[in-house]
Amino acid sequence: MSVFSLSDFADHEQVVFCSDEKSGLKAIIAVHNSNLGPALGGCRMWPYASEEEAIRDVLRLSRGMTYKSAMANLKLGGGKSVIIGNPRTDKTPELLKAFAQAVERVNGRYIAAEDSGTGVDDMKYMSQFTDHVAGIIDKPTESGVRNGDPSPATAYGTFVGIKAAVKERLGRDSLAGLKVAVQGLGNVGFDLARQLKEAGAQLWVTDIHREPLVRAAKEIDATVVAPDEIFGLDVDVFAPCALGAILNDQTIPLLKAKVVAGAANNQLAEPRHGAALMHKGILYAPDYVINAGGIIDVYYERTCNFDRAELKRHIESIYDNLMEIFARARKEERPTGEVADAIAEERFKR
Ligand code: NAD
């Protein structure tokens, strides 16, 4: 296969293919753009069906990180890495060490953090072999200390972003009585659902696993629905917090919500689905803008700034970023995703 001509290659500065015979490591590190700073992005471990699938994924994700960090006004570029393998069966200390050494050889142009298939413990282990890992330091919170996992910050940023979208589309400041459907009750989705409940929202939730659903019904009085029922609910907000590509030709016709605002990455199956949402009168909060809380959290860790109030203010700037996008999209009659891309490009191509 050719790499340079792939549409996802899109101006990548550097793509590194890494292997280690002894540990079985096969990994790819992609640095999309470092105009604003070192390329920070998660390390995903996944049993890709083919090398082509892994290449496409890493390129698409690293490009997305450039836009996310630029939009969040961070001095970071965009990058991502993938390890080809099953995290449940193939992840060994030797493999993580070999991957950390590969990251070290990129010499700080790429900084790894946790993603699907890797966690805080993996990053901590890797930090023995390279300085270029993040999401590893315990942080003070109002109720004690939390570990380096950025998910709570992502959930808070998404909560703030939902408020912005509700203000824009429904003209409401309060979430009390608002009907919200949350797809996916993982690290981000459950925390988000809890915050929505505390703000007075009424919740419908789904997941493919039973345990978080039982907890959600018990702890936050949420109504549990089957995975394929979540799209067609008569709610105000649909918050995707599970998979990518869930806004597509099959699901968009089903939606009754006036706002789509959630944490999942790459929600639009194709860019044209942003226009489809707009034509249906649905306000879409661009995924990489609303889910930037985690990268903001990791950035503060890298700069050793543990000022909780400052970090919170920065995460809350997601509200203003979205309002700027919504206003411009309204004025120019363009899909919000297109407007977000234009603003991000103005920032990182400057
Ligand atoms: P997670 O793996 O902890 O949670 C995902 C949840 O979705 C799981 O509970 C899973 O069972 C559920 N799920 C999977 N398929 C489903 C389906 N078809 N229907 C319903 N539920 C389904 O992941 P997370 O860390 O909570 O992240 C959620 C999303 O947000 C992902 O798309 C992730 O890329 C994105 N995101 C996460 C962060 C972060 O800080 N964790 C940051 C930015 C973006």
Automatic annotation (TrEMBL):
Task: Report any Pfam family annotated for this entry.
Answer: ELFV_dehydrog_N
Keywords carried by this UniProt record: NAD, Oxidoreductase
The question of whether Oxidoreductase is a record keyword is answered with yes
Please give the Gene3D superfamilies that the UniProt record associates with this protein.
Leucine Dehydrogenase, chain A, domain 1, NAD(P)-binding Rossmann-like Domain
Q: Which SMART domains match?
A: ELFV_dehydrog (SM00839)
Q: Glutamate/phenylalanine/leucine/valine/L-tryptophan dehydrogenase C-terminal domain: which residues?
A: 148-350
Q: Which domain of life is it from?
A: Bacteria
Question: To which protein family does this belong?
Answer: Belongs to the Glu/Leu/Phe/Val dehydrogenases family.
Q: What is this protein called?
A: Amino acid dehydrogenase
Native organism is Aromatoleum diolicum
